[in-house]
Amino acid sequence: MIKSILAAADGSAPAESAMSEAIAWARTLKAKVKALFVEEEARFMYIPPISSVEGGVVVPVPLPEEEYDRENERVKAEGEAIRQRYEEMLRGTDIKGTFSRPRGNVNDVLAHEAVVHGLVVMGRRGKNDPPGSTKPGRTTEELIHASVRPVLVVPAGTESKGPALFAYDGSKGANRVLLPGAHMAAQAGYNVHVVTVNKDRAVGEAVQAHLHEFFGEWGLAADYEVRSGDAGPEILRAADDAGAGLIVMGAYGRNPLHDLIFGSVTGQVLEQASCPVLVMA
C-alpha cells in the first residue's frame, strides 16, 4: 500500500531521526525512499529599510549579488552534507533511495511532493524554528494541515516500535489514518492498543465498536480502553502505560474550529510524545 516514502531533511537532529525512520520503514514496507532538502527561497531575500521604500509597501527583494553568492554557497554546502549523510545511512541496504534539493517555498514544495508518496516522514521541529520552544515547528504543522498523505512526525533521537497506540475518537482524521496506521502496524508486527477519551464509557465503547472487525481483518491483536479526562494528557498517559512506540491519530478532533483557536489535542500530543506520531488531517 505504501510504495514510496518522502523524508524531509534540513540538517537538524529531528530531521536526521526522520531520515533514519524513513529508511527503517522503507525496509519494513519494501518501499523506496526519497530525501528532500528544500533550498528555501526566503534565504535569498531581505526586507529593505522602510525609509528606502516608496509608497509604504514593504516587500522582500533579492539579496545584493555578493551576499546572494555567499548564501548560495552556504545552502549548497548544507544540501551536500545532508546528501552525504543520507547516502551513508543507505549504505549496506538494498533500499532504492533518491535525493532531491529543489529551490522554493519549503511549505509549498513539501505539500506538492507529498502527493506522489504514500507516507511523509519529518522531524518534530526544524533547523530554523525558534529555539527554546518544544512545540511542533511551523513547517511540520502546515504540512500536516495541507498534506493528503499521512505524516509521521519524529522527535529527535526516537524510533518507531510496537505496540502502536491508536487514539480514536471517530472523527474524519481518525478514520482516515486508520488504514495507513493498520498497514504499518501489520507489516511491522506490532500489537495495537486503542484508546478513546470520553466521559461516558458507553459512548466511548460504541465509538470503538466497529474497530474490532477492522483490526481483525488486518490480523492485528488489539485491546481497547475508554478513558475520561482531558484528551491530550490521557492519550499521552495511555501511550506510556501501554509502552507504545508509535502513536496513530487524526490531526483534528471533532471540532476543528475550536482546535484552531484554542490549540488542538494533536498539538499537545505532538509536542509531548516521546515516540513518533502518525497523523492525518
Description:
The chain is an alpha/beta fold. 43% of the residues lie in helices and 20% in strands. It has ten helices and 14 strands. The protein has a ten-stranded mixed sheet with strand order 6-2-1-8-9-14-13-10-11-12, sandwiched between helices. Strands 3-7 form a two-stranded parallel ribbon. The radius of gyration is 20 Å and the shape is globular. The two termini are 19 Å apart.
Total helical elements: 10
- For the report, how would you describe the main beta sheet? 10 strands, mixed
**End-to-end span in angstroms?**
19 Å
Helix content: 40-55%
What value does the Rg take, in angstroms? 20 Å
Quick summary of this structure?
The protein is α/β, with parallel strands linked by helices. Helices cover 43% and strands 20% of the residues.
List the keywords.
281 residues, alpha/beta, 10-stranded mixed sheet, 43% helix
Write the layout of secondary structure elements.
Layout: E1 4-8, H1 13-29, E2 32-36, E3 39-40, E4 45-46, E5 61-62, H2 65-90, E6 97-100, E7 103-104, H3 106-114, E8 119-123, H4 138-146, E9 151-154, E10 164-167, H5 172-188, E11 192-197, H6 201-208, H7 211-217, E12 222-227, H8 231-242, E13 246-250, H9 256-262, H10 265-272, E14 277-280
Parallel strand pairs: 1-2, 1-8, 2-6, 3-7, 8-9, 10-11, 10-13, 11-12, 13-14
Antiparallel strand pairs: 4-5, 9-14
Helix pairs in contact: 3-4, 8-10
